[in-house]
Amino acid sequence: MAAIHSPSPTGAPIAAGLSLAEALEHRQKTGKPVRVGLIGAGQMGTDIVVQVAQMQGIEIAAVADIAPDRVSQAAALAGQEVDIVSDNAGLEAAGRRGRIAATNSLDLICRSPAIDVIIDATGNPEAGSRVALTAIAARKHIVMMNVEADITIGSYLAVEAAKAGVVYTLGAGDEPAAAMELINFVRAMGYPVVAAGKGKNNPFRIDAVPADYVEEATRRNMNPRMLVEFVDGSKTMVEMVAIANACGFVPDIPGMHGPAAPRAELQDYFCPKEEGGLLSNKGVVDFSVAKGVAPGVFVIAEMRHPRVRERMSDLHLGPGPYYSFFRPYHLTSLEVPLSAAAAVLFGQSHMRPLPVPTAEVGCVAKRDLAVGETLDAIGEYGYRGFALSRVDSLARKALPIGLAQGATMTRPVRKGELITLADAAPDERLKIVEVRRAQEAMIAALGQGASA
């Protein structure tokens, strides 16, 4: 087995020449597992607690949740026990007893010397901003499952993490990181990526509201609001913008095309108009609503050399010059611990945004909105996500979706209209609003302009 050498920024050893599985096996054998601090014990957090219990060389050391009973329930599913703690001494004592420390304090977990890496599984942009900032300030690696926070302030967080010498990464298993695997594969081979995207998991119903999805959400053990975030397209817009901001891509048109492109014909849809496709540009993000594409992700590569096309034809991948590379699954929360392990063991980010974003998710009103109303959360009754290029977002002064919850309507907006920063004032008390201002100042200092 290859040697383990040199400290990472947080003092943990880096595994040289080992695969991730081998590095985790080494940690298991040496009794030094990667110790994870998890923020949030909802559906995603519970999955992570259970999944980590199946792995070697990594463990959930502590979980923070506003309802400690949820931590106990998650631990029970994983065959583990919980100690309720209020300070670092209690957290470390729980570890010595082989138990998960449960607390309602994210600060305690993020700052504990006993923790190597933080996973944010809150699903709330405001909470995500606080988790990430606290973790980075404490020089902890941070795995963000909170894509809504990432598309709002991720560029700033990634830069701050780099300054602190720690890893900022989106979590493996979600569509953005799964698509990023394919993007990196194609780019490493030297071919341009024409388009990247996913299959939409649910019917696309832009007027969906939680009251109409209580039964389905209950049956699927989901929060109705979270289910609606998928159904009304908001989650798809958020995920595709996350890919765009990590790669320098843009939506080809506002809202993207979203055709019913079958799995076998993705390359025929997501190619330039002059060659029979839908696209006005190359280097775009989009999605398909055709059955058989979800839960997969895809990348369309352009490969024009005659010898390469000959080989691709021999391999039954089509005549080209556009080829579809497809991953037929993503394992959501179950893959996330891999990002935590890679951050600690290799200093590796599976995905992070560029310093200057190229795309934004704005808000389109689901109903008529009146002056004085306070906007609700993503996936509720007031608005849905709508993907725009950064250029379009700046021109239209779109309200970023990560700043929408708690914003006050200052002008009436009719159903179906884009909500702008002239129509709604974000809640200045929120940390995410403050960080967004800092991100825009950072971008302006790079000469790229500001939006919100």
Automatic annotation (TrEMBL):
InterPro entries for this protein = Asp/hSer_DH_NAD-bd, DRL_cat, NAD(P)-bd_dom_sf, SAF
SMART domains for this protein: SAF
Q: Annotated Gene Ontology MF terms? A: NADP binding; oxidoreductase activity
Q: Which SUPFAM superfamilies match?
A: NAD(P)-binding Rossmann-fold domains (SSF51735)
Domain of life assignment: Bacteria
The SAF domain, residue ranges: 360-425
* Any Pfam family matching the protein: SAF
| This protein's name | Predicted homoserine dehydrogenase, contains C-terminal SAF domain
Organism of origin = Bosea lathyri
